[in-house]
Every structure is written in C-alpha cells, then in structure tokens.
Design goal:
Elements (H helix, E strand, L loop, with lengths): L11 H15 L8 H15 L4 H9 L4 H12 L10 H18 L5 E6 L5 H17 L4 E7 L2 H9 L1 E3 L8 H7 E3 L5 E4 L1 H6 E5 L10 E6 L8 H14 E9 L13 E5 L2 E5 L3
Helix pairs in contact: 2-4, 5-6
This protein binds S-adenosylmethionine.
Length: about 280
C-alpha cells in the first residue's frame, strides 16, 4: 500500500486546477513556486479522507455531496494564518496619535466601528481593542464596537477562545499582559480578559462577500499580499465604500495602495503612510 508521504508533488496541470479553485473561492493567488507547499498541505487532506490521489481529491471537492463540507478544510489548508501581538506597532502608534483623536472629535456621540478584516487567530483585533481602551485614558470615554472576521473557521474559533502562548505574546509589554490577560493555571499560556473577548464579535466570512458599512477604521493587514492586483483593487474599493467619510484603512507594512486605482487620500506621518477616505 502506498504511504501518503510517498505520494509525489502535484504535477503542473493538477496544481493549476487547484490554484484556479482557490482563486475562485477565496481570491487567493497561488504563485507557481507554491507547488510543494500546496502538495504537502493537500497530502494531509488525502490522509484524513483516505483518498489515494490528488485527482480523487479534486473530484471529492467538486462533488455536490461533499463539496460544501470539504471546502472549509480545503481553504484552511491553503491559507496562511501567521499572526502575533504587537505586530507592526507603527500602525497602532498612528492610530493613537492621529486617527483616534481625530475620529473621536469628528464623530462625537457616535459609536466608532472597527473591523479587523482577515483577523486570523485574533491577535490583531485584541491588540486593537487594547489600544482603543488604553486611548480612553487621554481621550475620555467613547462608545465602540469591533468585528474580527476571517475565511477560516478554525482560526475564528481560536480567536474566540483568546488563549495564546510563546511567540504570539512575547512582544506584549509586561504591564499590558498583566492588565488584559490572565495566566491559565498550570499552563504556559494566557487568556484575554473575558470582557474584551465578549466585546469583540467574531465571524467566519469571505472578504469578497462581506458587507459592513459605516466603519471608522478597517485593519486589513498582511491579507492582500495573497491576492492579485485586480482583486486587491476590487477589495480596497469595497473597503472604501464601507468606510465613513474621513475613515481609515490600515494595511500591512509590505503592502501598498500605490499601484491601485482607489479614492483614498494618502497622509504621510512619522509612523508611515495613512490611507483616509475623502471627507
Ligand atoms: C497572514 S494572516 C493576517 C492576520 C492579521 N491580519 C495580521 O496581520 O497579523 C492572513 C489571513 O487572511 C485570511 N484570508 C485570506 N483570504 C481571505 C478571504 N478571501 N476572506 C477572508 N479572509 C481571508 C486568512 O485565512 C488568514 O487568516
């Protein structure tokens, strides 16, 4: 009997078929050099389903009887979910220094809406929530709500539980760790405070189908890097429409809107370029 580790990598044609499906479902653009990565990840699905070949798996994922259920696992196998607290802190510095003071003033009396779009395992939305709560020390109290969404069920469940350890939390300042987390008994892990966990709404959804109008800030960091230029532009324009006038979009440090045709106004700051909807 062939062991699963003996199944060779996908051939070029098989890779293209899966890559087209991934693009159709999640808009993720898999470059050709990802063939080994995709082969390794799909091998795990073959093993779990006891299927003998990638072609059997392709039929399985396209079969009406099994497609819906398997698509969840398939997309989980192909997404990259790396995330950690205190990632690209310049974004949060700009939020505290420029964005929140301005939005709190402009939208006094309104509830500010924040969205972590492609939130993975939850570090970004919790980090954002902590910064919002901390900012009230200088800005005074304001009402807010926060949505964290991702296409992968598994990471959204992880985010809801809010339990982290190791590399994910190593950059969190000690005083913040003490204030917003509790150490779990007999474990080298910390859980986000219950009130913060309950404050954030987590949802599984595809960004290209999401519609959340009235946002004041959208964080979509290290997500667009996986999309092609055309899909990036489509998504960024969707975000533009979902922001209030004067609202902000935050993207990852390796991402840029420079090549995209969008309505965003750029605002250079010491903490990096800010992207603001015209008001
Ligand atoms: C590298 S993580 C970024 C996490 C976080 N934003 C950060 O910067 O730390 C990228 C996330 O985007 C999600 N993603 C990719 N395509 C998506 C789509 N079409 N809709 C929603 N989420 C998507 C992936 O599941 C993954 O969790």
């Amino acid at each position: 009997m062939t062991s699963f580790s003996e199944i060779p990598d996908l051939d070029g044609e098989q890779f293209q078929r899966f890559a087209r499906l991934i693009h159709e479902k999640a808009h993720i653009h898999l470059k050709d050099h990802k063939i080994t990565l995709l082969s390794n990840r799909l091998r795990k699905r073959l093993r779990a389903l006891k299927l003998a070949s990638y072609d059997d798996y392709f039929r399985y994922i396209n079969d009406e009887a099994t497609a819906k259920q398997e698509m969840v696992h398939f997309l989980e196998a192909v997404t990259t979910n790396e995330s950690y607290f205190w990632r690209t802190t310049q974004n949060f510095e700009a939020l505290k220094k420029h964005v929140l003071p301005e939005l709190v003033k402009a939208y006094r009396g309104s509830r500010l809406k924040f969205w972590s779009a492609g939130c993975s395992t939850g570090e970004e939305p919790y980090n954002l929530a902590i910064e919002i709560v901390e900012s009230m020390k200088s800005l005074g109290h304001f009402e807010w709500e926060l949505l964290g969404s991702d296409i992968s069920n598994r990471v959204v469940d992880f985010a809801r539980a809010g339990i982290y350890s190791g590399r994910k939390i190593e950059r969190i300042p000690e005083n913040i760790l003490r204030r917003y987390f509790r150490k779990l008994d007999d474990q080298d892990a910390y859980q986000v405070r219950q009130d913060l966990r309950e404050k954030i709404k987590f949802d599984t959804e595809n960004l290209f189908e999401a519609n959340h109008p009235g946002q004041h800030c959208i964080f979509c960091r290290n997500v667009m890097i996986y999309f092609n230029r055309q899909d990036q532009e489509k998504l960024v324009n969707r975000f533009y429409d979902m922001l209030v006038d004067g609202g902000y979009l935050f993207i990852g440090h390796a991402e840029s809107l420079q090549m995209l045709d969008t309505g965003f106004k750029t605002r250079p700051t010491e903490e990096g370029v800010l992207y603001q909807k015209q008001s």
